[in-house]
Specification:
alpha+beta; five-stranded mixed β-sheet; 2 helices; 5 strands; 24% helix; 34% strand
């Protein structure tokens, strides 16, 4: 089975660690699960972008791209759903 490498952009890393620790504890396992399946049930492709996906984690969202050639999941942004799309 293919395993993808999950990497966080500097922006996503900063945004993630500015969240409350309880929220971080919920988000990290979901991001790690993208190693096994980068397009899990419930993820959505963002309209207007060639290769951006969104995964819902409670009231929070992670925006990421998937490169199937080099098996890479690039987390671009993590944040509250009311702020993430701005």
């Amino acid at each position: 089975m293919k395993r993808y490498q999950v990497v966080l952009s500097k922006t996503a890393e900063k945004d993630l660690y500015n969240l409350p620790s309880k929220v971080i504890a919920k988000i990290i396992p979901v991001l790690k699960s993208l190693e096994e399946n980068p397009r899990p049930h419930g993820c959505k492709k963002l309209k207007g972008y060639a290769n951006l996906w969104r995964i819902r984690i409670g009231d929070y969202r992670a925006i990421y791209s998937v490169d199937d050639v080099i098996l890479l999941v690039d987390i671009r942004d993590v944040g509250n759903r009311k702020d993430i799309y701005q």
